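Q: A reviewer asked whether we had any structural model of the full assembly, not just the individual parts. We don't, so I'm hoping you can provide one. Inputs are below.
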Amino acid sequence: MTVGIGSASPASRPEFAVVGGGLVGWSIAYGLARQGRRVVVHDEGDIALRAARGNFGQVWVQDKGAGVPEYHRLTRESAVQWSDLARGLRDASGIDAGLQQPGGFSFCFDAAAFEARARLMRRMQTEAGDFGFEFEMLDRGSLDRRLSGGPALGPKVVGASYTPYDGHVNPLRLLRALYQSAIALGATHRFGAPVDAVDPVVGGDGFEVRTAWGSAWVPQVVLAAGLGNERLARMVGIRCPVRPVRGQILVTEKVQPVLSFPTADIRQTDEGGLLLGSSQEEAGFDDRVTIGNSGAIARRAIDTFPFIGDLRIVRSWAALRVMTPDGLPVYEASPTHPGAWVVSCHSGVTLAAAHVHGVAAAIARGRLPPQYAHCSAARFAAPAPGTAGKEAHVPQPA
Amino acid sequence: MFRSLRDDDADPHRPEVTLSVDGEPCTVPRGAPVASALLQRGAASRLSGLSGSPRAPYCMMGVCFECVVEIDGVPNQQACMVVAETGMIVRCQVGHRSAAGCATR
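A: Here is a predicted structure for the entire assembly that you could use as a starting point for your response.
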């Protein structure tokens, strides 16, 4: 359906418009469709700044949420639900997202870093309380024994942390599987025009979603537009101060299976290439690769596993993370415009299961339960009247 | 199946190079890419490491990676991007290259 916006019969009119055609938007759309809701997804198109098409593809748990155990729990529960998500997507779309969850290693290159890592892991275990947190700190000797049979480590590696929760997927197949599964459940896709405005209808009766193609009325709207959420969320009275944080990735030629686990910044895809990541850079909306940071990524990968130095790099790219000042997601229901919701995060892969099974189901029910309280936008100061001020940049969360 | 357009100029003194593809000599015009030798053979030049299906040079401009072969002992070389030279030893690949050479223990 590409013409006649708003002309559909009432029984087939969407109940929800999801703004954003990336991993977060399609996760919410699929989750709503699973709840029997009629959904239309507004997708800017291939010119969009797509974190969904540039990300590293990890289901990564081990260092997420230090200081905010609720966020760690959200992350880990999503990782636990990921196998159900993968199975559901495979049944609905025939697409295998390629989930592997063997646990992951984060390598340390000097004694101080190893000690700091051990403190972080102990702290997270303490904060986890009854929920528990399994980890191992492996010194070089233990690590060599653990990884025997695999590729040799470089001389600079002094040790690593390991948690059993970590894994990885093929993020492009994930995006395709979410799309196809949502479409199979009746979701529709409006592709090729950015949403210019979401105008609350006076009297609280739904929203006009405006694009260059015209405007369509919808009872409820979910903003999942990545870096576009800052602008759009204001229109429904929510502060969503997200900023771009650039990450660069290098990809090697395909080789036979050599790495059976992901690390914090190296993984071998199920198609054979090694992905090397991943920088954290404040570079505004510049999504180009740079020689300096690519070089640093390659150096670190070779320091970890020297064999990588014999592989050719066949591609590189950069993409922009969608980052809040404190690194936590934003899940919010508009207090001033009921029926408007905001979903933003920088972990669209890891949190995909939480978005499909938890957040979308809560939105369908009309209420975000207390387990998402730490993700409320109420933690950001309300915008001062008449200003469109940018959030001050805060150092990266761990 | 494939034929060089330059065959039409029928110059008996055209400079050529001869390389070895899976042990068989193969002659191509000087300056031609290794991929031209693979195409001239008319057979698959590798088996996909993912599907096992036969593949041959396709895009001829360094993008599709369908033409990767081992050249002088170095695997995964894009044959369309390497100029053929006399004496080159080219081997077709079955599946992905191994990552050893890669010092496993």
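A: Points you may want to mention in the reply: The interface with chain A takes residues 49-50, 65, 68, 76, 95-105 of chain B (CB under 8 Å). Chain B has a mean pLDDT of 87.
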